Amino acid sequence: MTEQKIVFLDRDTIGPGVEFPKPSFKHHWVNYDKTRAGDTFRKAKDASIIITNKVEFDFELIKKLPQIKHIAIAATGTNCVDLAAAKVLNVSVSNVPGYATQSVTEHVFSMMLSLRRNLSSYQRDIVIGKWQASQQFCFYNDPIHDLSGSTLGLIGTGVIAQSVARVAEAFGMKVIFHSVSGRQNFDGQLVSFEELLTQSDIVSVHCPLNEKTENLLNGDAMNKMKPSALLINTARGKIVDLDALRLILQRKGIAGAGIDVAPTEPPLKSESIMYLNQMHNCVVTPHTAWASIEAMQVLANEIVLNLEAFVKGEERNIVN
Asked: Where are the domains of the chain?
C-alpha cells in the first residue's frame, strides 16, 4: 500500500485534550498549528490528504496541488473548499455532519437562560456592591423571565434546529420554524420569515451561510422583532448584520442578543462585535458553541473514519 502523507493545516482549531486515533493504513501525519493563506501551498505541496478546518482551497490552489486526492474538512460547513472545483479536479471532499449537535444545543440554551435571567447584570451588581447595599436577602434590579410559555423561532430545520426544538419543548416553549431553502416536508410548524420575526420571543439562527442567508438578519428584519425579544446566533457570522444589531440594542429595539460567531474571526478591535461584548444585554462567545471536549473528540474520530473510508475506496460523508 502506498504511504499517504496527511497534512493537518490548522490543528489548533481542535482544542487540547483531544486525541486523533491512529489511521490503520500506512501514513505520515504532519500537524501545523495554523496556516496563513500565503503558506498553504508550501505546507500542502507534498500531501496526498489534507485536513482543514478553516484554511481555504479555491480552484487555482487545488489545481496547483495535483498530488492531493482527498480534502477532509474538520467541520460540518464546507464553505472553505470550492467543492465544484475539487470535483472537476478529481479531489474528493468529506465533512463531519452532526458531531456538535448536543454542544451547540446546550450553548444556545446557556445564552437564552443567561439573557432571560440577566445573569451577567446580577453578577456585575454584586461586584460593585449593590446587593450588599440593598440590605435585602433578595436583590431584584433587572427583570427575570422564564423560558416556559414563550415562543422560540428557529431559522433552519436541520439536525441542530430540531435538537434545540426538543429541548425547548421540554422547557414548555412553543416552537416555530422558518426554512430559508423552502423546505415543505417537515414535522414542525413552518411559518414565513416575517411571521417568525414578529411572533417569536427568541429567534435562534441554525441555517448555513449562502447567498440566500448572508445578511438575512439585517436592520429591516430585526426591526420586525418584538422589543422584548432575544436574538441568538451560533451559525455563521455573516448571517446577522452586527452593525445594525448594535444600533438596535442601543435603542432597545430588542431586549438582548447571544452571539457566538462573527463576520471576521478573530474580529478586529474596531468591529461591532467588540462593542457588543461590552453591552450588558449581549452575551458574546468566541465561536465555541461547537467546542465541547466531547464534541471535538467525536469530530476527531469521524475525521479518521472518513480517511479510512477514502483509502479503502469507499464513500463516507463525501460532499462533492
From this structure: 4-99+293-311, 101-284
